[in-house]
Amino acid sequence: MTDTRPTDTAATTTGTPAHRTASTSRATKETSIEVTLDIDGTGSTAVTTGLPFFDHMVSQLGKHGGFDLTVAARGDLEVDAHHTVEDVGITLGEVLAEALGDKAGIRRFGSINLPLDEALVEVALDLSGRPFLTYDVDFAPDVIALGTPPFDPQLAEEFWRAFATAAGITLHIRLRTGKNAHHIIEASFKGVARALRDAVRQEGGGIPSTKGTL
After folding, report:
1. What is the pTM (predicted TM-score) of this model?
2. What CATH number matches the domain at 7-199, 3.30.230.40, 3.30.1370.10, 3.90.850.10, 3.30.70.1790?
3. CB contact set of 209 (below 8 Å; sequence gap of 6+)
């Protein structure tokens, strides 16, 4: 029997507590993805997934998170964008977890209400090591896909679930108000980026948990 399970190369981590970086690659029969991340970067991004709208959204994580981020993904977009979107989420989550290491000295928690025109999205997260997603964002049944090739707005939830699970993050995303799908999704990505920027900030001291580990 042919083994069709995903194969992941071991992520590599380098640097000092003030310079947290990681890189990894993931290859399956559906996608091939390479990601590098510098948590203590300048917001420089280079994202190519074959889905221009998704590229724009993932770039928000680097820009507004203050991370240096590169993502190069190839997937079976002729079948569906789902595989590419989900696998990018998995790989990004894995890299973030590697770059954070034992999480000593981090703030751990982050939250924000982020507006984008008529849209307002609430984000709260905990770098807890316990993956959990609450995604309370509803789109109209006839919402139009974004970009070419098309990105179905419903796929944003699949991305966040994959990302939170792989990174070990408790993540809550709630739509407070909004009508435009582009604005809603972009506010979500910017909100998570800003909350992450706060949560990964190093304040000194040990691991922020009475358990002694995260």
Report:
1. 0.91
2. 3.30.230.40
3. 108
